[in-house]
Amino acid sequence: MLTLEAVEFETGRFRLAADFAVAAGRRVAVVGPSGAGKSTLLDLVAGFRMPASGRVLWQGRDITHDPPNRRPIAMLFQENNMFPHLDLVRNLGLALRPDGGALRRKELGAVETALTRVGLAGMEDRRPGALSGGQQSRAALARVLLQARPVIALDEPFAALGPALKREMLTLVRDVAQDLGALVLLVSHDPGDARGFAQDTVLVADGTAQPPVETEALFSDPPDALRAYLGT
Ligand SMILES: Nc1ncnc2c1ncn2[C@@H]1O[C@H](COP(=O)(O)OP(=O)(O)OP(=O)(O)O)[C@@H](O)[C@H]1O
């Protein structure tokens, strides 16, 4: 269970409140208007931002003051955050050895297995610049797989891909998350993503990240804030 307990965040004039829990293993979309605080919510969970008050807990353990690398969360950004001068094996190896040390045979095997799992077998020695956008997304997902954390947070990860490829990647995320038994938080501007991917949806609007609601129920009878955002 991921719990945001009476979390209050503020920076400048922006405020965000969150007070809800999500069960382990769920797929959750995070939707809402631009600037509402979707990325901020993920940052609070991942530890890149600190709440002014309240607590963040994973399986009942208070992680509010843990640094990002000590949290149970793997984050996948739109930019994918690969080092351009390192090939895929070395980029992904950093998930297992953040100090950049040489990989042992077993670790190398794990990297190769992860690359195969996301459809990149045989591309071990490519650098990120020699990959298409879709392949870069796959590589980023392979890293998430290697990190093997119980929560995966994705912030608009596939916005630059075409619709068919995006759907394919979301299916792969779902499969990878299932392999890991991971909870997924997916920020997206596309209601189709939420409906196709997520069992539950968190609506972020008017200074609040609202408790998750079953996705189909939310979209079939949207509250005013969601209706305004959807333009319906
Ligand atoms: N360092 C900062 N100082 C002041 N305000 C900030 C700072 N960083 C972000 N904000 C504000 O916080 C609010 C929430 O930003 P956030 O990126 O979380 O929104 P979002 O819902 O993810 O938006 P988008 O969909 O456009 O990516 C915005 O109104 C933004 O202007």
What does this structure look like?
This protein has 232 residues and is of the alpha/beta class. The protein folds into 2 domains: 1-72 and 151-231, Rossmann fold; 81-148. The chain is built from 8 helices and 11 strands. It has helices at residues 38-46, 88-96, 105-117, 133-147, 163-180, 191-197, 215-220, 224-230, and strands spanning 2-11, 14-22, 27-31, 53-58, 61-62, 73-77, 151-155, 183-187, 200-205, 208-209, 213-214. Strands 1, 2, 3, 4, 5, 6, 7, 8, 9, 10 and 11 form an 11-stranded mixed beta sheet that branches. A hairpin with a 2-residue loop joins strand 9 and strand 10. Helix 2 packs across helix 3 (105-117), helix 2 (88-96) packs parallel to helix 4 and helix 4 runs parallel beside helix 5 (163-180). The longest helix is centred in the C-terminal third of the chain and has 18 residues, at 163-180. The protein is globular, with a radius of gyration of 18 Å. The mean pLDDT is 93. It binds adenosine-5'-triphosphate. The site of adenosine-5'-triphosphate has 11 residues, from helix 1.
